[in-house]
Design a protein that fits this description.
Elements (H helix, E strand, L loop, with lengths): L31 H6 L5 H10 L9 H5 L5
């Protein structure tokens, strides 16, 4: 018998706008390819990506992020 399905961990905050300059989602800081392939990654791969997301934030210009602050 297989394990019951468990929810997939995700950094998604439902603010899906890609910054053209950095190529990152302005809500979760993932690339489009990471977003598209997220469900096919294993838990370890997702955890590795999620651990690196905070360091990506500076790649998006602060004035762009300010437009969506508080959402």
């Amino acid at each position: 018998m297989s394990d019951p399905a468990h929810p997939i961990a995700t950094p998604c905050v439902k603010l899906c706008i890609v910054d053209g300059q950095s190529g990152l989602c302005m809500g979760c800081y993932r690339t489009l390819s990471e977003v598209a392939g997220w469900s096919s990654l294993d838990d370890d791969a997702r955890a590795t990506i999620m651990a690196g997301l905070p360091s990506r934030r500076p790649r998006i210009r602060p004035e762009k992020l300010a437009l969506f602050a508080g959402r």
